[in-house]
Amino acid sequence: MTHSIQRIAINTGGGDAPGLNAVIRAVVLAASNRGWECFGIRDSYEGLLHPERYPDGGLVRLTRESVRGITHLGGTILGTTNRGNPLRYPMPDETGRLVEVDRSDEVLAAFKRHRLDALIAIGGDGSLAIANEFYRRGLRVIGVPKTIDNDLDLTVVTFGFDTAVSFATECIDRLHTTAQAHHRIMVVEVMGRYAGWIALNAGVSGTADAILIPEIPYDIHKVAEKVNQRIAEGRDFAIVVVAEGARPVGGSYTVLEREVGRAERLGGVGQKVAHELQELTGKEARVVVLGHLLRGGSPTTFDRLIALRFGAAAVRALAEGESGKMICLDPPTVRYVPLEKIVGHIKAVPVDCDTILTARDLGISFGD
Prior knowledge:
Layout: E1 7-12, H1 20-32, E2 37-41, H2 46-49, E3 59-62, E4 89-92, E5 98-101, H3 104-113, E6 118-123, H4 125-136, E7 141-145, H5 161-182, E8 185-190, H6 197-205, E9 210-212, H7 220-232, E10 238-243, E11 255-257, E12 265-266, H8 269-281, E13 285-289, H9 301-319, E14 325-330, E15 333-338, H10 339-342, H11 354-361
Parallel strand pairs: 1-2, 1-6, 6-7, 7-14, 8-10, 8-13, 9-10
Antiparallel strand pairs: 2-3, 4-5, 11-12, 14-15
Helix pairs in contact: 1-9, 5-6, 7-8
């Protein structure tokens, strides 16, 4: 039973992640096999709010031909943005100052105007919170979890995470040789605003000496002790992996920028940690910020498969009459969970999880 679905829309919001195009391809093929038309919204909701900015009117018909050969591509063929939340859209007031305006009614009107029966929204916590609000206002919605940070609740993993961790681990491997050659402390800053999954998994896999994550506030003197211990043992270099949301005991996040209409930009903690460690140990310290390199590139086999499974499951959910649900991985299968249950809930790293226990057994410091 298709519940009168004939035309569906798909969009990608927030930061990009390897695997987005694989989801798009799976949605289009699964929808086409059911006789549905599929349309892609440009740049999250921007294509509906500002159609005049796009040669195709901001809404593009997606066919088997248009999604052929995109599974292995990074990025998203639809474009994305983390500035266009239609519930709190940044617009200038009469004085020219940016203020947040609710433009959600315009989005809903555009869905009616284009005769779109449902939305498959691919995104992280922010994008899925928007999708949930549209569901509450009567739109048929299915969410697909996407974030390299792996911080969405009620799903074992999100696509994009495996690719990011794999690349971060490769970078740490490379930094070992240059750190050893120059007898330096190498501080590697990775993404992870409020959850340290990337730093933890890449740090353990890359045999880091210290890993600093948001869930465990660090004492820089404890990290310095670890470095000095290595020096005393004749290991005249160190690798420290730092999540961008790591913070010292009693301290706060390191913020680069705050801007109306988007989440605050974290970053700079790697530089701070490197400076303090150099002062405390007397060892030269250098910083490598992997940043958006973690978002780019071709998805791993694992991320491709999960993305394809999620996209196909999203279409199945609509065909089964579901709405207001998010697709999640619950091995060995996928299932649907209410969007309202994941909105506002960050899946943080449990401080007693097996990976952290393993790291401590291996002698890795968390600065605590």
